């Protein structure tokens, strides 16, 4: 074979493993109920759906600055809207943060089992991902701080984390921030933060308001039930927000997305109902898993809308996933993320969780 004359993909781009989305079909192509993408089983706020449907004009560009949405978010969270930037999902903001603050040869640090987009976000700008060891599937603050070198430019932390559901409490997050040099950006990715009991808030928004090196990101894809509209938002010091505004897409949130998100922000009753549902069903599901402890099943403690179930007995994660698919459900197996004997299961409706628990119990009892 001769030397290729086509355009040469940058080697750091060629090294990227593309994001693997949660499946909605079985191995043999049957459609399954999706408990594999951490979507809201209660759907979307009715007010948000109505606001989305009220947008009749698709010919006009959306507000490039998502002005009214930033005002609504500012009101809800007590933040100056000038310090808020919206994105095409929070994924866009995570990628922009890496791009704005890290480049070729720089390092981007996060914890093992951290959200898979951090690896892509680091590599796409030529930076080197540095992965700290976990502690019980969660963040070990000392281990993460020990990874920071002169070359570290960005630290990513998902709180709660996906796919483990683990949560770093307020005091530990403060300790992490205190240990990070002022010229390193700490990104606290709070995609699942609304599922945490407000009494246990991690204090990230206060850090973003007070510190010069913190970006906090949120999404409308999870508790707000608007994953199909692709809307995220972030807040931090003016210099951070300014950097992201320079490089984001000029019309990066659609008209329907902005309208739906504004109405969703104003419907906190839907958010509270979703949080309450999730908490009750997660507790019930974790109890069902704990009852199978003698068969080697274990649930990693979760503050999110999913549970990582570990398979340490005769029943393997791969076999369990097949059995759950036979019962009609897709869940997430993450061998590529170093979790060959685990399944991440999104909290669905009560009936769905009963189906999954029943399938797991019969498989665990039958496995030898
Ligand atoms: N952060 C975490 C931890 C996530 O799990 C996800 C969704 N999988 C995202 C960010 C991105 O979500 P979105 O782009 O839909 O806002």
From TrEMBL:
Keyword field contains Amino-acid biosynthesis: yes
Biological or metabolic pathway of the protein: Amino-acid biosynthesis; L-histidine biosynthesis; L-histidine from 5-phospho-alpha-D-ribose 1-diphosphate: step 7/9
InterPro entries in the cross-refs: Aminotransferase_I/II_large, HisP_aminotrans, HistidinolP_aminotransfase, PyrdxlP-dep_Trfase, PyrdxlP-dep_Trfase_major, PyrdxlP-dep_Trfase_small
A Pfam family that the UniProt record links to this protein: Aminotran_1_2
Keywords for the protein's UniProt record, in alphabetical order: Amino-acid biosynthesis, Aminotransferase, Histidine biosynthesis, Pyridoxal phosphate, Transferase
Enzyme class of the recorded protein, top EC level: transferase
Cofactor or coenzyme needed: pyridoxal 5'-phosphate
Sequence positions bearing N6-(pyridoxal phosphate)lysine: 222
Xref: Gene3D superfamilies: Aspartate Aminotransferase, domain 1, Type I PLP-dependent aspartate aminotransferase-like (Major domain)
Family from the record: Belongs to the class-II pyridoxal-phosphate-dependent aminotransferase family. Histidinol-phosphate aminotransferase subfamily.
Subunit organization: Homodimer.
UniProt protein name: Histidinol-phosphate aminotransferase
Encoding gene per record: hisC
